[in-house]
User: Fold this.
Amino acid sequence: MPGMKQAGLRIYQWFEDRLGLGKPIIDAAEHDVPASTASWWYVFGSAATVLLVLQIVTGVLLGLVYSPSAGQAWASLEFLDHSVRLGWFLRALHGWGSDFMIAIVLIHLAQVFLFGAYKFPRELTWIVGVFLLLMTLGMAFTGQVLRFDQDAYWGLGIGASIVSRVPWIGGSLVNFMLGGPIIAGPTLTRFFALHVFIIPGVLLALVGLHLWMVLRLGINEWPMPGRVVSKATYIRDYQKLTKDTGIAFVPDAAWKDAIFAAAILLAVMACAFYFGPFGPTGQPDPTIIQTAPKPDFAFLWIFAVLAYLPPSLETPVLFIAPVLIVGAMLLLPLVSNQGEKHWSRRPVAVLMVAVIAVTLGILTHLGTYTPWSPIMDAWTADPIPTVYLQDRTPLERQGALLLQDKQCRNCHSVGGKGGLRGPALDGIANRMTEDQIIRQVLQGGGNMPAYGNALSPSETTALVRFLTTLGSENQPPAFDASRKMVTTEPPHAAPTGAH
Amino acid sequence: MNPNEPIPQPNLQAGPSSDQPIEPNRAKQAAHSRRAFLFKLSLLANGVVGAVLAVPIVGYLLGPAFRKNSSDESWIDLGPLSAFPEGETRLARFRNPVTTAWDGQTGDVPCWVRRVSGTNFQVFAINCAHLGCPVRWFSESRLFLCPCHGGAYYEDGSRASGPPERGLFEYEHRIVGDALEISAGKMPTLAACASTPQALTQIAGVEATNNAVGVRKPEAQNLKKRCGSCQG
Assistant:
């Protein structure tokens, strides 16, 4: 055994004499870091790097089979899922790895923000980090396109429609993005080049810079309330802190990074194993229009924003908001690079993180069930609850049938089933008088189309009669207050068929 | 420039102390400044070559962006008129005139054909005017609905409700013999809808003659400048 060790050392020395990389690498690994940074809060950056390596390895392996051709990509994914041994698992690893990477990168971002790590002298580290976030999101979007299914096809359509709104050069930009007049072969190949060559190249270069600066400037020390960053004294203070409390990064601090990275990899594997790969959904045939396109998890919040913005604000917000958001993130360390680092002395920072996290969380949650989208098959799939048909007149039952036939259920739920775009119709008689319902049905308004053209007078009467039976008996039916002024009749006996 | 400066300076300082090293130092200095000049010259040469090389690269990269819109559009046969019953709206499909051999199914484009009556047609793009998702026709409620964000359009393509700011995109169409032809080839977006103004007047005309319901007239007239807050 000692002989083997000797031989091993000799071989190492042979390479080291020629390469000279061993010593600087060992020195970098063993450099002193303040003991306070050997914390479970400091493991997210390294975990993101490990996930990046996982993505590269699984991505290259998928590249062995994937065919980046619009006519074949979908079939090659199906082939990976079903005909290549463990192909499904590799796809699942890559897909879940992507979701985990975005999550870890966001947590890393929030952590370094709350710990004031972007302050002097680490401003550029933060700025490079902002670009790393953008690259990560870019990888997620282009990766979703490479999963060339219905969602990818129509996702590209959404992208092209957004780009087309750029003033003046929108049309040229659409052509540039699609590589031709329509979403087709050249579109997929350019997103393939982006996903496989361009963005990973930039990403790796920026990760190198990011790590280089972490080594050069030292990891951010654990912030303490009252320990204020000042350009004049910070570097001296940091060096003193490192000297006084320094421990070797490897192994004294790095074991936590290693354990967390292993846990994350295990979590990715578990998710990949239990939940399997993402899609592909239907084949990318635009003539199959029975589809409800949806972006991947990371972009659901944008999908929600686009549903809720007033139409007139959409284009300005689409192009001004990203500039403001990214601009603010890039300028942050240049504007505020001194002062308190500790979160307890930075209430606005804490509030911002909380508000942004809750906002993104709510928008993403809405994106998972898209209450703004009509449910296209509700009119044939969701029956009227039986209780709403009992003790009804033939005319009212005819109205119930019309409610189904005229596809009202696609937007309005009854008995908890149906679309959520319009209000639920269960208590409609308590909220609207018969006249108001007639006006709303025929003329539309708010978010509702007018049905004057799609309903005959008799159909309208039947439909509205049925709707006036949908109300709670424990609440009074809606009535027109003005009518009470001019007539002594009870409000619920208001004349019908006023249209 | 910066790297060359520190090197000669010790030589210059050392120069006056003894006579002997002066000559070699001067020669070295002269050779150095000559090489530094040649290096700058080589940088310049590479800059020029790089600029020349950049022209075809940028031209290749931006090629698709500078395509003339008109080169993508051409007249496409959608089939005989008898395939489209009067008063109905049917899904038609065509092969895009500009395709590559590896486009596969993505080269097939669907569209909605509405035969109002006789030779009076409207051909709508499948793409919602909001974000391009595929709109679906519901004949019973006479509406096009978009699955993405709930945009709704009336049977004549005009905006009914939801986030779209305008009506459906319309293809220019003509009738040649017994066949319906449309002018298509590009993905319809807000930036590429050349036939829009014409389409809008068509909608308004159809509106006035075919439909007596007054509530929809303002829709057609205000189509272009509609906003979410001025509904109903």
